[in-house]
Each structure stands twice: as C-alpha cells, then as structure tokens.
C-alpha cells in the first residue's frame, strides 16, 4: 500500500505542471503570431529570463499580445478569469488549488502590459508552465 501511494504521488508530481500537447502547440502558435508583428516582436533572449526583464517595455507589449491571443486578457486588456482558470486546470487537478492560483495570479498590477507579465510569471511560479517553447 505504501509503495502504491508513493508511485501515485510521483506520477501526480510528474504529470502536474505539463501542458497537454495541443495546448502547447496553441501557445506556440500565439507566440509565433505575436513575433510576426513588428509592434509585438521581442528578442526571445529577453523572454528566456522573463523575471529579469519584466520591466522592459517591449516585453510587456509582447506578453500582452500573448495574453490576449491565449484569451487570458480581452482585447481591452481586462483579465478573463474564466480563461485563466481553464488554463490552470489543464495542469492542476485540485480545484481548490486552481482557484488559489487564479486568485493569486489573475490580478491587475498597473498597466495591462505589466499585468500580463506579472500573470505569466505568477503562473510559472505556481507550476503552471503556460509558456511557448523558445528557440
């Protein structure tokens, strides 16, 4: 019984925090779309260390594009908590944990660009790797 619980815990820990392949492909497509527009293009090296570049204006513009494209923020910049919740639920199975993460991460933090950056950082910090695969 102890062995079963240990295996179940390990399997749960490994599967938590992994996007389904179809969602990963979607995030990659959103990123490619944002990169294809000169107004929302950003050097990917800045995204690879997002926390160190969170105040970079172009990073903010790109992350807002990503957030809108993924449906996390509306075209007006408002946070779509329902969409954030559905994305978090793709990798977190515990509904109370999902709600906790949404309440922590889906929060306006100044400009809409700043909000987008903060939300993506918060999601990643909380084991929700909703990020594109960067070159």
UniProtKB/TrEMBL annotation:
Give the keywords, sorted.
Answer: Signal
- Pfam families (alphabetical): PBP_GOBP
Matching Gene3D superfamilies:
Pheromone/general odorant binding protein domain (1.10.238.20)
One GO MF term: odorant binding
This protein's source sits in the domain of life called Eukaryota
Q: Which residues constitute the signal peptide according to the record?
A: 1-16
Any keyword Coiled coil?
no
- Alphabetized CDD domains for the sequence: PBP_GOBP (cd23992)
Q: What is this protein called?
A: Odorant binding protein 13
Identify the species of origin: Xylotrechus quadripes
